[in-house]
Amino acid sequence: MEKLQQIQQTLREIDDRTPDALRVAFNLGRRVSPAPAPGEEDRVATFVASVLPPPPPPPVSEDADVKEPGELHEAPLASTSEDDATRVLRMEWASCYVPDHDEDAHFGHDEAGVLGVADGVGGYRTHGVDAGAFSRGLMTTAFMHVLAIEPGTPVCPYTLLEWAYEETAATAASGASTAVILSLSGATLKWAYIGDSAFSVLRGGKIVHRSRPQQRHFNCPFQLNSRGDGTSVTEADVGEVPVRDGDVVVVGTDGLFDNVFDAELERVVRMGAAQGYSPKNMADVVAGITYEMSRTRKKESPFSTEYQKHPAGVGFHGGKPDDITVVVAFIRAMVKETSRASWSHSYERGLAEILVEHNVPVYRGQNGWVAEGCKRIASKFNIKFPSAQFTKQQIQEKEKDMKANYKAVRDARKQSGTGWDASLNMIIAEPIIWEKLKKDYPRVKRYERKPFLLFPVLASLYEGEDASSTT
Asked: What global pTM score does this model have?
């Protein structure tokens, strides 16, 4: 969960990863490669022109997809074949957060196929309260619920949003927040959102579905809060849309969608696809371009275009400075694995608890588990999880794997520049420190964006003490 880890790339780092082709496409100025001499072909501009031909204006129908908030709706999509509908898909996601007042929050979970973004309402800042407390509470609570769900269990975005809201409101967290939660179920993307945190689904570089913001009036989105005078969670817009292998989902707060037009977002995604971007590359570049757009006064933005319709906005041009959260998810076809048993978090936790139960001299000597101990542990595990039926060797290999993971995290969190969130069992470090940790302790990479929930029980097993006292 990047918000918890405070993974915030500096603008310079993002800037350096913005390729020349996009700088030319968006007229952003500085180029890494030398500009061509007079009369010389500008290969970058030629590439841009080939990838980004001027798109024809989309037809607008008077009957175009206008529905009430909360009504389930689908965007008009190209026909979906039976193969598309039955294919099992997965999400591959990454994010980039460029803070302004640091009131956004987000999370993602690859295996569950769930993403969430929330935006603290900045107006509360003027009252001297933490305007980001409610957004952080929503996303942290939602994330912990996802972690607790059995692997393979479908996630209902509305139910998850409702749980997160009720638990966050019960803490009387300050401020208010918009929020959007998405989940992938088979070949269907489901959503629930309140306010103007939004998402787009792109296919072949074109938007095929775009969420519509919920607003009371201009710049006043629907919002959840603890006081009970905000929007009811029952007013969430709920729906689903079919997706395919190769689709790109972009989720963000209004810091993104107030500053980048849909056509501009399409251009970035098309360019990224042509250059073979990963989700992380694309999230970084979208966030970097959005930041530059938010600071300009030379171009119109979605925000300025709407603001100019009101008396106070006459003569306003440019973007709107704000926190910018960008989450990019690639929809991929699930690669079929062999028919071997698969380890889930529940299985791993069950094994860890059985190991602790058998951590006595009769079953574990100075050199490790004795033969009788291995036999009893395997038997106890398969009685507890009859559908798993792992072999003794598989269980021994998993125990070695968990021990190696534990030692890597234990040693990594001792390094200079790292912190430890004991409530979430996560290493806290800046991006530059994480790069060094991943190089020195390759196994910690898997815990860069998610908690190591087994850390406390493994600490009691391998250190003989509770994780909170392990230094």
From this structure: 0.64
